[in-house]
Write a structure and sequence with these properties.
3 helices; Glycoside_Hdrlase_35; six-stranded antiparallel β-sheet; Jelly Rolls; Galactose-bd-like_sf; 20 strands; 2 domains; globular; 38% strand; 296 residues; mainly beta
Length: 296
């Protein structure tokens, strides 16, 4: 791969604690795919917690602990608009648990959980019974009452992201929001840049090894979903193909990201003024994203 140029970025932060006319409310927690039906990878789970003035943690500063059980595949947690991290499941066990201390104040507090799906098995026994999303329980501990179960109270749901509904990944839709200066390493943020097509006819790709998890578009066309998951740095020792094969046998690329380069068809490119838009979920290093060409 040969470097073919970097990018000058602008960023737009996705709204994390606002709901629009697409939102709907239900009692209790719901399975994600039964709500989204492939309209989006993402589903917001939002609820409110009322904190009385006599709660001890308001005086001690020992914040309550929020615990979330999910069927997968990844989720991010926001309380009153502030990010409290992300967790994700794995191939062998997609189910996940988030547990963290969250700052709350007297009165109403908004808990917003963004659940993301990355696909389901399409073979095996009873794969139609697999599910994703926050199925609970969701609990808040460290209160005067001890532990409060939030699972059965009213939850407000919204399918997809605000940026998706505005189509900010498209050439026309990108002008519908106000873009600011580059905001690298920020969760749930859209980034855009313009670039010229590299000279020649060598295949073109994006080097995305420094990013986290998200999606990318060039001139409104979907390059694909990316997840720069870093493989274990161990297990790439000696290799023998003797005996029974297993998925951990003769491994290569230990310590490398799962995928670094993403093909950009030249037929999608103009000589200049090409629009690259990325949705970064976890927060990545924009300075590492490069345009490259492949030479034999």
């Amino acid at each position: 791969m040969s470097p073919a140029g970097g990018f000058s970025w602008q960023s737009y932060s996705e709204a994390t604690n606002s709901l629009d006319g697409r939102a709907f409310t239900k009692d209790g927690l719901v399975e994600q795919l039964s709500m989204t039906w492939d309209k989006s990878d993402y589903l917001w789970y939002t609820t409110y917690v009322n904190i009385n003035s006599n709660e001890q943690f308001l005086k001690s500063g020992q914040w309550p602990q929020l615990t979330i059980y999910s069927a997968g595949h990844s989720l991010q947690v926001f309380v009153n608009g502030q990010s409290y991290g992300a967790v994700y499941g794995g191939y062998d066990s997609p189910k996940l648990t988030y547990s963290g201390y969250v700052k709350m104040w007297q009165g109403s507090n908004k808990i917003s959980i963004l659940s993301a799906a990355v696909g389901l098995p399409n073979q095996g026994t009873h794969y139609e019974t697999w599910n994703v999303g926050v199925l609970g329980p969701v609990t808040l501990s460290g209160l005067n009452e001890g532990k409060r179960d939030l699972s059965d109270q009213k939850w407000t749901y919204q399918i997809g992201l605000h940026g998706e509904s505005l189509g900010v990944q498209s050439v026309a839709g990108s002008s519908s929001v106000e873009w600011g200066s580059a905001a690298g390493k920020q969760p749930l943020t859209w980034h855009k840049a313009y670039f010229s097509a590299p000279s020649g006819d060598a295949p073109v790709a994006l080097d995305m090894g420094s990013m986290g998890k998200g999606q990318a578009w060039v001139n409104g066309r979907h390059i694909g979903r990316y997840w720069s998951y870093k493989a274990s740095s161990s297990g790439c020792g000696g290799c023998s193909y003797a005996g029974t094969y297993s998925e951990t046998k003769c491994q290569t690329g230990c310590g490398d990201v799962s995928q670094r380069y993403y093909h950009v068809p030249r037929s999608w490119l103009n000589p200049s003024g090409n629009l690259l838009v990325m949705l970064e979920e976890f927060g990545g290093d924009l300075s590492g994203v490069k345009l490259v060409t492949r030479t034999a």
